[in-house]
Design goal:
heterodimer; A: alpha/beta; Rossmann fold; Dihydrodipicolinate Reductase, domain 2; 3 domains; 6-stranded parallel β-sheet; 18 helices; about 20% strand; globular; B: 8-stranded mixed β-sheet; elongated; OpcA_G6PD_C (chain B); G6PDH_assembly_OpcA (chain B); OpcA_G6PD_N (chain B)
């Protein structure tokens, strides 16, 4: 599905036929091409002048998309995310030959390390967490470009050092001034770090090069704080050069939603209110809050998960066909859906929040949320949230979207279930179809990525009896080892400047507009319901669906 | 599990496949292609091993066709088909059927293979050793979308290369070409950075290396310059030099997996460029099943009649 993404310098300057057609179609459709929101994806800047690399050709499909000359600067490099995900992803990319020769990795953290110590930390992280086998020669290629800058975020000398390190790498490794700054730090440090980058002129790209910022969730805790955060970052970086990581969007199955819907003929005709009864989007975790009390308390499941991941999944499931597979068209369609979302009038009856209670879960005794270390006994933070949303457009009018997420649920699973209406008429008598449920298409996002189709089938035997059966498509089965980690894909896209899989600030703001009224209602009405750890959420959530004559799937 | 069938037919083999699948409890599997390997007894083991490793990325039904030669003239007239059906853990992520043909049926192996192909899924034929003169006209080759040969495995690779040029049909590909992908992608990336017109070029490699010849031809076709072939001690391709107005771009790999990249006006850096295992080559081959146009261009080298790529 990435075929239409411009891949090489040559394609960049000249554009493939499809590209031009797509662009023409987009213009014909009146898609706004100007302004921050509608501009086309930033293109790799090494295509800036008229040099067309004769060794690249759109027909040459073996040559992979290699990022142009560039480097990655990670702030908060000692953190968990950095060690478990980012560093291994960088190595895996190098191992697959997708990083440019001379790619450089700069770590920034408050540690008294030399470059070698940093290299050792990366080495250990890669050894432990990388997906592809460890190869000494790849490691050597990477290790030559590793630098470490010790220091605090308000330490001017450290940023001066960073600046000279970046300049030194440009000279010694040919990174050509192209840098992505990955802010793997708590959001309260964002203003500090971006201000420092600005002050030390690290955010200013020279003509023909780029500087990008990569940020992780949370993108604020309500609309106001999100706007404020965006303003701070956009003050320093061009909005198009800010990449917000939602690692779910890097997952193969999520990208496959669009392929499934728009590359096939058999699903799209029934993907609407005439056939679909309702949609359930679930993200369940079996773990508790662990040591993250400080971050989690006061935030809760809805802000942590629904605002970003679930609303993004919903937007991809519900959106209309984009004019082209590029960042601008995707943004247009996703925004349209998010703007069409309507909240239920009675939030008390159609939203539920809960807190996990002490119980036996999967064979171990676990504590309740209120007994977790660092959590106030009176805390009303939700660890479970379920909401009902309507999408007010011709395709979806009257079809509810149920979104739920929670910690300490039955098992770790993320899925999108499109549940269809019953057959309008059945020639079989009621006893024959007694065990028959509704048809469903389930997109399994994780674990066990793939898709399930559920339909009725005759039970072998002499009597006519129809029962639900499932048909599975598993990524693990059909395309086993080529499935890369989400972070690999996303880091590569940042270096290539391809923004398809990154939510833009408008989407973040729209999502908060959906969630804010619910959070405000919760803040003033009642308390979270308690649910047994290891179950599928509070009884209230089941009642919420029962009121509509439906029930939750067991994922 | 493994089922041995002697003096059998394709329909009995099909039954055994269903029976094997039922027995291990996976009635439906997501296999994406059928891979036919035509080889001799001597090379069968390595080829099957590579195919099974590649099947982790591309679950497939693997059909191995092995021609056996009977010892006595009397036996030679007798036609017989033996099969070994492997499903489950014995066959990577798919199914493997090893077909041994004796006598006349050896000349009609396609009649055995055809009923065993997966419905609708693409077919790939791989000749790990000697391939037919015209792969696309071979009865087995004609069944396939993609025909994989290997110039490394033949006696006179450069002569054979000429024959491949003459017999090329869309869908043909060669592992000597596959082996070049890392080189080609690094050269393209180097040129992305150097951003200069190439005015001279040289490929340094061991003598009689078909990959080096293909690389040189590809460079000739794309850069429109004469490419010098320099013979070195090897192994395989040791260096590529592209001369530009600003200086020379060099990727130098004297030995081992580490290469050095030198760009004009920039310090040299290390690159990982290792020789890949056959299973990795096969996995790359199976990623794309449409015609490899760039291979055709490389085969023809400068003689390529280029339709401009940038329409």
């Amino acid at each position: 599905m990435t075929e239409s993404i411009p891949q090489t310098a040559e394609q960049e300057t000249i554009g493939t036929k499809e590209d031009k057609e797509a662009r023409a179609a987009q213009e014909a459709a009146g898609v706004e091409q100007t302004g921050v929101s509608g501009r086309a994806a930033p293109r790799p800047e090494y295509a800036g002048t008229d040099f067309a690399n004769p060794l690249r050709d759109p027909r040459d499909r073996r040559l992979p998309r290699i990022a142009g000359p560039s480097g990655l600067v990670i702030f908060g490099v000692t953190g968990d995310l950095s060690r478990k995900k980012l560093m291994p992803a960088v190595y895996d990319l190098a191992n697959r030959g997708l990083l440019p020769p001379g790619f450089s990795l700069v770590g920034f953290a408050r540690r008294d390390w030399e470059d070698q110590d940093f290299a050792q930390v990366v080495h250990d992280a890669v050894r432990e967490h990388a997906r592809t086998p460890f190869r000494e020669e790849v490691w050597q290629q990477l290790a030559e470009g590793m630098r470490f800058i010790p220091g605090d975020f308000d330490d001017d000398t450290a940023f001066k050092q960073l600046r000279s390190a970046v300049e030194e790498l440009d000279a010694s490794r040919g990174t050509s001034g192209n840098y992505a700054f990955y802010l793997s730090v708590p959001p309260k440090f964002f203003p500090k770090v971006v201000q420092q980058l600005k002050k030390h002129k690290l955010a200013d790209a020279q003509e023909g090069s780029w500087r990008r910022a990569v940020i992780e969730k949370p993108f604020g805790h309500d609309l106001d704080s999100a706007c404020e955060l965006n303003a701070i970052v956009h003050d320093v970086f061009d909005p198009e050069q800010v990449f917000r990581i939602d690692h779910y969007l890097g997952k193969e199955t999520v990208q496959n939603i669009l392929a499934l819907r728009f590359a096939n003929q058999m699903f799209e005709p029934i993907w609407n209110r005439s056939y679909v009864d309702h949609v359930q989007i679930t993200m369940a975790e079996d773990i508790g809050i662990g040591g993250r009390a400080g971050y989690y308390d006061g935030i809760g499941a809805a802000r942590d998960v629904i605002q970003n991941h679930l609303l993004q999944l919903m937007a991809l499931t519900a959106m209309e066909e984009p004019a082209a597979f590029d960042a601008a068209s995707l943004l247009t369609e996703k925004l349209k859906v998010l703007r069409a979302v309507r909240l239920p009038e009675d939030l008390g009856r159609h939203t539920v929040r809960g807190q996990y209670a002490a119980a036996w879960q999967g064979g171990t005794k676990v504590r309740g949320y209120l007994e977790e270390e660092g959590i106030d006994q009176a805390s009303s933070t939700d660890t479970y949230a379920a909401i009902k949303l309507q999408v007010d457009n011709r395709r979806w009018a009257g079809v509810p979207f149920y979104l739920r997420t929670g910690k300490r649920l039955g098992r770790r699973v993320t899925e999108i279930a499109v549940v269809f209406q019953r057959a309008p008429h059945s020639p079989f008598d009621s006893t024959a179809t007694e065990e028959l449920g509704s048809n469903a298409i389930v997109i399994r996002v994780q674990p066990d990525e793939g898709m399930t189709v559920r339909f009725g089938s005759k039970v072998p035997g002499t009597s006519m009896e129809i029962r639900d059966v499932t048909m599975d498509f598993a990524y693990g089965e059909s395309f086993t080892e080529s499935s890369p980690e989400a972070y690999e894909r996303l880091i590569l896209d940042v270096l290539l400047g391809d923004a398809n899989l990154f939510p833009r600030h408008q989407e973040v703001e729209e999502s908060w507009k959906i969630l804010d009224p619910i959070e405000q209602y919760w803040a003033t009405h009642g308390r979270p319901a308690q649910y047994v750890s290891g179950s599928w959420g509070p009884a209230e959530a089941d009642e919420m669906l029962a009121r509509d004559g439906r029930s939750w799937r067991r994922p | 599990m493994k089922i041995d069938l002697t003096d059998t037919t394709a329909s009995k083999i099909n039954k055994a496949l269903v029976q094997g699948r039922r027995a291990i409890g996976t009635p439906a599997v997501g296999m994406v292609l059928t891979m036919v390997i035509v080889t001799d007894e001597e090379n069968a083991y390595d080829a099957i091993k590579a195919a099974e490793e590649a099947s982790h990325e591309h679950p497939s039904r693997t059909l191995v066709v092995i021609k056996r030669h009977a010892r006595t003239p009397r036996d030679r007239t007798q036609s017989r088909l033996d099969a070994e059906v492997r499903v489950g853990a014995d066959a990577g992520t798919g199914e493997t059927v090893i077909l041994r043909t004796y006598g006349e049926v050896s000349d009609h192996a396609d009649s055995v293979v055809l009923p065993l192909l997966l419905p609708d899924a693409p077919v790939v034929v791989w000749w790990p050793m000697e391939a037919p003169e015209v792969p696309s006209k071979d009865p087995l080759g004609a069944l396939a979308q993609r025909r994989i040969t290997d110039l490394y495995a033949v006696e006179n690779p450069l002569e054979m290369l000429e024959s491949r040029v003459r017999s090329y049909a869309p869908g043909d590909t060669d592992l000597a070409w596959t082996r070049l992908t890392p080189w080609r992608s690094m050269l393209a990336a180097a040129l992305d950075q150097a951003r200069a017109k190439v005015i001279s070029a040289a490929v340094e490699a061991e003598a009689e290396n078909p990959a080096a010849e293909l690389l040189a031809r590809w460079l000739e076709a794309r850069l429109h310059v004469r490419v010098d072939r320099v013979v070195t001690a090897g192994p395989v391709v040791t260096a590529v030099r592209l001369g530009t107005e600003n200086g020379e771009i060099v990727i130098d790999r004297p030995e081992g997996p580490l290469a050095t990249l030198t760009l004009p006006g920039q310090p040299s850096r290390t690159l990982a460029l290792k020789v890949r295992a056959t299973s990795e080559l096969i996995a790359e081959e199976l990623r794309r099943l449409d015609a490899d146009e760039m291979y055709a261009i490389a085969l023809n080298g400068e003689a390529t009649e280029e339709t401009p790529a940038h329409v």
